[in-house]
Amino acid sequence: MTFTRSELSAILDLYAHRVSDGAWRDYAIDHLPGSAVFSVYRNSLDKPLFSIAKTTSRGTEFVVYEGTKLLKRTSSIKDAVRMLGRKLEIVK
Questions:
Q1: Is 2 exposed, middle or buried (0-12, 13-18, 19+ CB in 10 A)?
Q2: Which residues 6+ apart lie within 8 Å of 18 measured at CB?
Q3: pTM
Q4: Distance in angstroms (rounded) separating the CA atoms of residues 3 and 67
Q5: pLDDT tens digit string along 1-57?
Q6: How many whole angstroms separate alpha carbon 73 and alpha carbon 32?
């Protein structure tokens, strides 16, 4: 499972904006059986702040996580990116 060029472009556009805001500093893309995961980090040694997973468990869907907490399931990459495009902040 991989992200398509248009899906990855939408995710990387959001990533670039959040990097320019100073909120995100690093990312990783993991390709697993049945899913692809784009994770963002504040520092490269931290756990992921947020992740967008593309899965085929229920047809093709995108799942947005904050750490390990599920935030949203959607069939559209635009909805997943829009979810993380809002000014979400980690509260300690």
A1: exposed
A2: 24, 40, 84
A3: 0.86
A4: 20
A5: 889 999 999 999 999 998 988 888 999 999 999 899 999 998 777 899 999 999 987
A6: 18
